[in-house]
């Protein structure tokens, strides 16, 4: 199972910089960078809610499920 994080896409659509989003939701730029790269094992609902609130989007706009070839 692969979860694709499309936070960069939403940031570009909203013309917002990562550092501005990180400041607005109260996390470090390093943590936001890890999230954008999909290098985290989990994300708190409170963090996801804050991101969605700031970017005026839904969780499905940020996360996408992609089946691996062996799962198809």
Report how far apart the termini are: 10 Å
The share of residues in extended strands comes to 5-15%
> What fold name stands as the CATH topology?
434 Repressor (Amino-terminal Domain)
The strands making up the biggest β-sheet line up spatially as: 1-2
Please work out how many helical segments DSSP would assign: 5
- For the record, the CATH architecture stands as Orthogonal Bundle
Walk me through this protein's architecture.
There is one protein chain. With 72 residues, the protein is mostly helical. It has a single domain (2-71), classed as 434 Repressor (Amino-terminal Domain) (Orthogonal Bundle). The chain is built from 5 helices and 2 strands; from the N terminus they run βαααααβ. The protein has a two-stranded antiparallel ribbon. It is globular and about 40 Å long. The model has no long low-confidence stretch (mean pLDDT 93).
Keywords:
72 residues, globular, 2 strands, 434 Repressor (Amino-terminal Domain), two-stranded antiparallel ribbon, mainly alpha, single chain, 5 helices, 53% helix
Brief digest:
With 72 residues, the protein is mainly alpha-helical.
Topology:
Elements lengths: L1 E4 L1 H7 L4 H8 L3 H8 L8 H11 L3 H4 E4 L6
Antiparallel strand pairs: 1-2
Helix pairs in contact: 2-3
């Amino acid at each position: 199972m692969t979860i694709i994080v499309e936070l960069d896409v939403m940031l570009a659509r909203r013309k917002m910089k990562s550092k501005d989003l990180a400041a607005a939701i109260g996390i470090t730029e390093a943590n936001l960078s890890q999230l954008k790269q999909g290098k985290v094992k989990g994300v708190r609902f409170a963090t996801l809610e804050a991101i969605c609130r700031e970017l005026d989007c839904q969780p499905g706009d940020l996360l996408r499920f992609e089946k691996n070839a062996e799962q198809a």
